[in-house]
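User: Is it possible to get a 3D structure for a protein together with its bound compound? The compound here is 5,10-Methenyltetrahydrofolate. I've pasted both below.
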Amino acid sequence: MSANGQSALLIDGKKIAEDIQNKLRDDIKTWSELHKRKPTLVAVLVGEDPASCKYIEKKMQAAEYVGIDSRTEKLHESVTEDELITKVVELNKDESVDGILVQLPVPQHISERNVCNAVDPTKDVDGFHIMNVGKLSLNMMTFVPCTVLAVIELLARTGIETFGKNVVICGRSKNIGLPLSMLLHSDARYELPGHEATVTLCHRHTPPEQLKVFTKTADIIISATGVVGLIKADMVKEGACVIDVGINRIKTQEGKVKLVGDVDFSAVREVAGHITPVPGGVGPVTVAMLMKNTFQAAMDRLKQ
Ligand SMILES: Nc1nc(=O)c2c([nH]1)NC[C@@H]1CN(c3ccc(C(=O)N[C@@H](CCC(=O)O)C(=O)O)cc3)C=[N+]21
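Assistant: Yes, that's possible. Here is the predicted structure of the complex:
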């Protein structure tokens, strides 16, 4: 139990996602009536990975709710890189399409980088195109990856300051840890909103004792590693905010599959000031931010 005798406040990602989507729903309705069309999102899914199918389904449901036209283009697992890129280029040229996303991971024989770079940067609602990654690193306006936006949104809506704070990010993935580190230290003197934190980016070669030294001084800990139980109670400063981006499927003793994050939730909860659960934390807000990026893409298209 923490010094004030209370356990951490739970950050309700599901509720936050609903709030965002309700606001978007109103804005999209107004926009669609004005422009006589709806924003349009196309997801490209290669193969039939059950987790990918589930995420795509959630995205399609959210799109339907907020008033975005959406569809999933399904390609066989054996599709070649050229064939996949041909599909993407076709969507790039399609004037009725505002946002394109290729669900990751793609099969081993296809280069993820080549595929992400094939998406028209103005339709790249995932923010994975090399040009959008470059812009983010320069704190320029661009599409920011949805999970990164979700973390920022969870902090902002919970009233957690980042200005001058110590943030420790665990995990340096190109789609989450790295862009999150770029956004959280962003400088307000450029185009993007500045978050102005001091960021420490830890990864698999950060020695465990050193990791603990870093996390112990963090005001905000964000874990995106896929390592179950990485963040333990003795690594967390009293009152810190803990954001769990991990998604791990584990088998329980009864043989059931359970979704857990990277954080030892029940123990960390007693030390932290705020904590996100898994499920019901970052995941639903990620989907909401995809809707926001798609609406943005549609608005930008009409302005061009
Ligand atoms: N091109 C691309 N863009 C992505 O944005 C992308 C991707 N590929 N590949 C996979 C990851 C993962 N991701 C999630 C989306 C929603 C939940 C989500 O809604 N999670 C629910 C529960 C889901 C469940 O029950 O499995 C929750 O945490 O409460 C999680 C993870 C988007 N990703």
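The longest helix spans residues 13-35. The domain at 37-120 is CATH 3.40.50.10860 (Rossmann fold).
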